[in-house]
Amino acid sequence: MSLALEEILQLPGLHELSVRAGARSLHRRVRWPYVAENEGIAEWVMGGELVFVTGINHPRGEANLLSLIEDGAAVGIAGMVILTGDSFIQVIPPAVIARAEQLGLPLIEQPYALKMVVVTHLIGTALVQTSQARRSRNDILGQLLTGDYPSLAIARQRAAHLQLVLDEPRRLLALRLTGVDDVFEQHGLVVGERTWQATRQALEDQLEAWCRQHPGSVTAQLPGDLFVVLLTDTRDLHEALAALYRQLQAATGELQLYMGLSGLADDCAHYRQALNEARQALDVARHLRPANGYCNFSELGVLRLLQGIFDRTLIDDFVSRTLGPLLSPGRKHAHALVHTLDALLMENGNGFKAAQRLGLHRNTVNQRILRIEQLSGQSLDDPLFRMNASVALLIWRMSEDHGKE
């Protein structure tokens, strides 16, 4: 049961709440509201609370407010609301705002004229409604993803009632954190459990925030350690997922994150197959460790065979022997010959089309072809070399973050 702070601020009746600091962290999810009556809050909160500070039952000078900010950030509250007015806390001290901004803790100002009972009632009601809707959503998606539904027609009707659009082409992204055992072994059960749960929650929050920014995307919660996101198949999907991976990496700490993308599912009747595909792509990603963090099932092909090679050095050696002579470390266009070889293979050896793909003159491509054959000692007319080069390039693109030169 949770709502993002940015969702709470958009609730009807709460427009008078204003963000004073920590706007970059408004994706944090609120589990419940908590009114702070004691001098400190460290021993009274567990993380995820939206803490309200009134000053009614305890003086709240600058020093105390700074202490509350420090405690709140340390225990992981979602944010802090300070009530201001003539009677108790007249203004929020600039030092408190600056420290909250520095810590990335959302700090919200509420005028005393906006009654606390109204605010907490609106938030509490929204949390309950959100919880009910999310349970129903996860129930429907879980049934469709596992194929364990009594009636596809009823599942579709329930989805429509919850405004879930499921009968359009979608891809499925499966995500998994690895290294959990190492965290428990290194830190022990107590700290390990806290680290694991905090990382998991941070990942869920980031995914929910990402989905709100990408219309048509929706998370699905399944039992176990697998995270699932349904995606609209947009033109820039691959770039968006690479950016998502970089964003999520910042929240995983000691754990490693891998992702697998399914092929296109025409409608919700094919979600079970899509989940199976995403799992297979995820397994390959864990083995080959692509630079962009994920593997696409539609592009696996021979990679599924390479997954069976447990000694990664054999794969790296194959790529080095095949492409190594074409690399020019230290030069401005170190990968020019490799990119040219890639374009030629994509265009079935057609130099004219490869030149168009690269935005180069045909003579430049011809010169590079000669250079490729000289350095590699191979002919582009040799089908075995083309096959080896295609496989090596596929691994190379996954293993390194190479830009076009």
From TrEMBL:
UniProt-listed PROSITE patterns: GGDEF (PS50887)
Q: Which domain of life is it from?
A: Bacteria
The family database entries (InterPro entries) matched by this protein are listed as: CdaR-like_regulators, CdaR_GGDEF, GGDEF_dom, Nucleotide_cyclase, PucR_C-HTH_dom, PucR_C-HTH_sf, PucR_dom
Which residues are in the GGDEF domain? 168-299
The record's comment on protein family reads:
Belongs to the CdaR family.
Report the protein name in the record: PucR family transcriptional regulator ligand-binding domain-containing protein
